Amino acid sequence: AAKKNPEIKIAYSFQGLVVTAVAKNSESGLLPGDIIKRIDGQAFNNFDEFLEVLSANPDKGYKLRILRDGEEMILDSKNVSGIEVHEMMEIDSENTYPAYEINKNPRSIGPSGGAMMALAIYNALLEEDITKGKFIIGTGTINLDGSVGAIGGVPQKIATATMYGADIFIIGEANYDEAKQAYEEMKHLFKPDFKLIKVKTFNDLISELEALQ
Fold first, then answer.
1. Residue 163 sits in a domain of what CATH number?
2. N or C: which end of the chain has fewer CB within 10 A?
3. DSSP state letter for 118
4. CA–CA distance from 108 to each of 17, 84, 103, 136, 154 (Å)?
5. Per-residue confidence of the chain (213 residues) as pLDDT tens digits?
6. Does 63 lie in the same domain as 25?
7. Dihedral of the alpha carbons of 203, 206, 207, 211, in degrees to the nearest 10
8. How many domains are there within the chain?
9. In this structure, are 59 and 115 located in the same domain?
10. Are 108 and 203 in the same domain?
């Protein structure tokens, strides 16, 4: 959207490293869902900087400032091996244009609608309608790098698209084969009449829609 309108700007601020998995033999003391904010009193702005702090003090214990269940605490950790983390980013509303409000009571919840929510936001920022009036249904998570991730319940979503008369169904690459199989099986019952589009990234999604006649 920013390429079409230079005034559009979305800024992010780093919030820490969120722990997504912990091995059974890990001595970190961390739990899934913990957010690592500082290590030995040092702040870091990304995963690489976190690794730099670790490498500067190998084979020793660490004091981790973490956020657990909404409460900040200091955790004495023997080491931080045996964990998986990813960077937690938050939109910096003060440096983002246009201004926005977050709907705290959304009709749709869950990560599988991420790609379609991103498309709705993108389309709202443009003067033209990128959907060209087509009835589009789709599914797939959306990641910070723009990749469209895998989801579950594909056959049910294909059935829903058929029932509501979709023109196009967007599906991530990881789920395409499953979606195509469900589509073929559905032909014997309900005769779905929509185009199944496979995408790997959000840019792929936009390119496919821009190519619509």
1. 3.30.230.10
2. C
3. H
4. 27, 29, 11, 16, 17
5. 666 667 777 788 899 999 988 888 888 899 999 999 999 888 999 999 998 888 877 667 889 999 999 899 999 988 888 888 888 888 777 777 777 666 666 565 568 888 998 998 888 888 888 999 999 999 999 987 889 999 988 999 999 898 888 999 999 999 999 999 998 888 777 777 889 999 999 999 999 999 987
6. yes
7. 180
8. 2
9. no
10. yes
